[in-house]
Amino acid sequence: MSTTHSLTVLKLGGSLITHKDQRETVDWNSLDRACATIGTFLGDLPDEHRLIIVHGGGSFGHHNAAEHGVSSTEGSTDARALTAIHHAMGELNGAVLGGLHDHGIDALPVRPLSVAAQDGPLQFPTASVEAMLDEGFVPVTHGDVVVDDRKGGTILSGDDIVVSLARTLGADRVGLCSTVPGVLDDDDAVISQVDTYDDVASVLGGSDATDVTGGMAHKVRQLLALDAAAAIFALDDLSQFLEHGTAGTVISGHDEERSH
Amino acid sequence: MSTTHSLTVLKLGGSLITHKDQRETVDWNSLDRACATIGTFLGDLPDEHRLIIVHGGGSFGHHNAAEHGVSSTEGSTDARALTAIHHAMGELNGAVLGGLHDHGIDALPVRPLSVAAQDGPLQFPTASVEAMLDEGFVPVTHGDVVVDDRKGGTILSGDDIVVSLARTLGADRVGLCSTVPGVLDDDDAVISQVDTYDDVASVLGGSDATDVTGGMAHKVRQLLALDAAAAIFALDDLSQFLEHGTAGTVISGHDEERSH
To answer: Which residues bind ATP (chains A, B) (predicted)?
Structure first.
């Protein structure tokens, strides 16, 4: 990729763009608001910025995966079951693409089952993603089934894809947009800055604790390991994140040059 | 991949598995016969053989691509149009997967737009395909839209994918199953063996001629450049090809050891 562009990796959480309790139901209102905000941002900066969008599975991925007994650790060799989970995620991906197209965003799909594999570490070749970015498209990828060494197929989370792509492509900004305004302290106030895991261990649990926060502890640990600064924020702050790179809780990057 | 396995790349032509004159119409009869034959073959040889299936677009790809003015040379930057062509190919891919599943074949999709890119030569990273083969799955890929350097998105043909994967993965056998029984001579008899293009120039046209044979001249040239021997044959000969590696017209490989 050209070094004159900055690159943002933005995750739209599954709980944000779907109704999590209703099977395979898009939250069209939230999805449209997110797409409108992204469209306004890209419209203002057509040639300066490159964007990758990753979305979660919400009520499309989780029900299907659970029914077939597939998780990030439990695999299946039943190709029909794996294809069914992948197909459901494709339906959600199609809805996200349509929402983005409606706001003038040149979004194209990148389906992880087709490109990635778990072989110990995640293999996610980026020829297609880089070509899309170079041509001015917005790649839209998602949590999905992927083939996993000696396990058949397992679930690759959207969060893991965010981390992999941000690291491989040297993203400048990483944002997780979800239904929570950030990492919350014991009084439910947003913690504005996290520099080490110790800063949040008292609210998210120690390194050995069960992840009682619905994955927040795992997200924070993954984002702390990135070179780029990252942010966790709600939809109301998406515009601020896209314009300024900070919103909600900012997780410091390891690369001091880059993380201001 | 393990070297104890042999690898076949099999193309199911778009004209074979769809009704080419009826928009987006699967030829269920032909598709089911092909899937049944493949299922019988794999059932007899569960651990010895690895198979990749590539299918063409037929009446799913061609109408859509033509409507949007997209071809292998003419690109489009309209993401909604590119997504529509890709979506139509996904419908056909889903039908092929379903047919294979019905015959007990552990088939999984590999969508080229997600993994490949044209950057002068075709880039088609094979991490996902190799992982599928290692886990005993049958990757099923197809002609598709791919992003093309400075052109937006163009059409990548199933034939080009066959050649790319056969070369990258060192396929032992390559077969093109279509509606014709092979390369035909002037009396419409099947030419059993082609060692050089000169053998067929009189019926397919010289190197400068327009490809009046619906792409057959291009197919023969591509297959002659492969190390593996290749065959062009009709559905009636699919079983023979899978069992013996020869059927219809055999195109000699460059690798004499491999091409017997």
So the answer is: 11-15, 58, 215, 219
Q: What pLDDT, in 10s, does the model give residues B19-61? A: 988 999 999 999 999 999 999 999 876 567 899 999 999 999 8
Domain range list for chain A: 6-259
Nearest Cα to Cα of residue A159 among A222, A217, A116, A93:
A222
Residue A26's DSSP bridge partners are A18
Helix, strand, coil percent content, chain B, rounded in steps of 5: 40, 20, 40
Q: Is the CB of residue A84 less than 8 Å away from at least one CB of chain B?
A: no
Q: What is the ipTM of this complex?
A: 0.93
Distance from CA of B112 to the nearest CA of A (A): 7
Hey, which CATH number is domain B6-259, 1.10.760.10, 3.40.50.920, 3.40.1160.10, 3.30.2000.30?
3.40.1160.10
CA distance A221 to A206: 11
Instruction: Give A6→chain B minimum CA distance, Å.
Output: 20
Question: Which of A79, A128, A138 is nearest residue B137 as measured by Cβ atoms?
Answer: A79
The three-class DSSP label of residue A52 is strand
Minimum-distance CB partner of A109 among B114, B131, B146:
B114
Shortest CA distance to A32 belongs to which of A16, A54, A49?
A: A16
CA-based diameter of chain A, in Å? 48
Residue A168 near chain B (CB below 8 Å): no
Give the integer Cα–Cα distance in Å for A113 and A116: 6
Within the 51-80 window of chain A, which residues sit less than 8 Å (CB to CB) from chain B? 77-80
Q: How many helices (H) and strands (E) does chain A have?
A: 10, 12
Q: Which of A135, A148, A168 to mutate to test the interface with B (most CBs of B within 10 A)?
A: A135
Q: Tokens in use for A108? A: 């194209």
Residues in A touching B90 (Cβ below 8 Å): 90
Alpha carbon dihedral B62, B66, B67, B68, in 10-degree steps, equals: 110
Q: How many residues does chain B have?
A: 260
Partner B contacted by A85 (CB < 8 A): no
- The structure's pTM equals 0.94
Which residues on A lie below 8 Å from B83 (Cβ)? 97, 101, 107-109
